[in-house]
Amino acid sequence: xxxxxxxxxxxxxxxxxxxxxxxxxxxxxxxxxxxxxxxxxxxxxxxxxxxxxxxxxxxxxxxxxxxxxxxxxxxxxxxxxxxxxxxxxxxxxxxxxxxxxxxxxxxxxxxxxxxxxxxxxxxxxxxxxxxxxxxxxxxxxxxxxxxxxxxxxxxxxxxxxxxxxxxxxxxxxxxxxxxxxxxxxxxxxxxxxxxxxxxxxxxxxxxxxxxxxxxxxxxxxxxxxxxxxxxxxxxxxxxxxxxxxxxxxxxxxxxxxxxxxxxxxxxxxxxxxxxxxxxxxxxxxxxxxxxxxxxxxxxxxxxxxxxxxxxxxxxxxxxxxxxxxxxxxxxxxxxxxxxxxxxxxxxxxxxxxxxxxxxxxxxxxx
Length: 366
Ligand code: SF4
Ligand code: SF4
Known about the structure:
The chain is built from twelve helices and nine strands. With 366 residues, it is of the alpha/beta class. The site of one iron/sulfur cluster has 12 residues, from loops.
């Protein structure tokens, strides 16, 4: 049975009510449906998830989640959140019907949580003839049909905390699961524990405007627009690192490298975006970056062990770049990665000196 627009409005109203929104008082909703807009049906499937990424998205303030759900995400494009088992008002067969009807047409699949390949009873979504349906079965079926998949959170992207040793649930990430099953649907990884809501909304908007091919991904399947810069290069404590001042115990106001900070090997725009509506982030709270967006997070690297400093990259606060001078800089092979970073000759020499001092300090103390 096809879902009518009237019925979809009923679902949406229920979802919005759960969010504390009075749909029918909202002029944006009336406007959205009064005008011709392109609908992007979305099935949000939670598998081995704690729902933290959903909570992060629900707390988005700019844009607010009610605007994402009810208004056009970008002009002429509206997200039709047809299935989200955590927040949708419908339940039981009615909820599952929304999923089954939506997958008959082109849709975007969002996966939250790891894929559980161990005991299927650890994650069941709906039931058939009195038996629970494994989340992985839904994912295999929906993954083949979807136009693209967004894996939200480190668990969906790489396995995350559920995959940590001993991994009793047999958890893996969506990309690895698709590789096992021979599913070629494009997967966009948005790792994080939890994701930044802006990462999801901006990815969704780009997908709506230009399709998944418009989203340039790095070697870990993450959009480069959010996951290019090292945390280390934009950290407010970077001056302490360069000067060789390291916190030796919690509460000291210095660089947290020796307390396990993974900033030097973690790429994300957390320092610029910040969390909780831009109020703070891990380093502002004086907690080391644990590298939550990296595939090895959280336990492949020791939480409090130090990471190797493989490339002495300059902090973002250094002066702008004069690339034609860089050939004249005498770098050792250790710092060869700097060749791709444009820095003025004076800035480079200063950086080289500071980096060497910092490295020496680390070596001396270890
Ligand atoms: S090691 Fe961590 S705390 Fe120190 S400067 Fe780099 S990101 Fe900041
Ligand atoms: S600073 Fe590090 S641990 Fe904190 S959210 Fe960003 S990537 Fe994750």
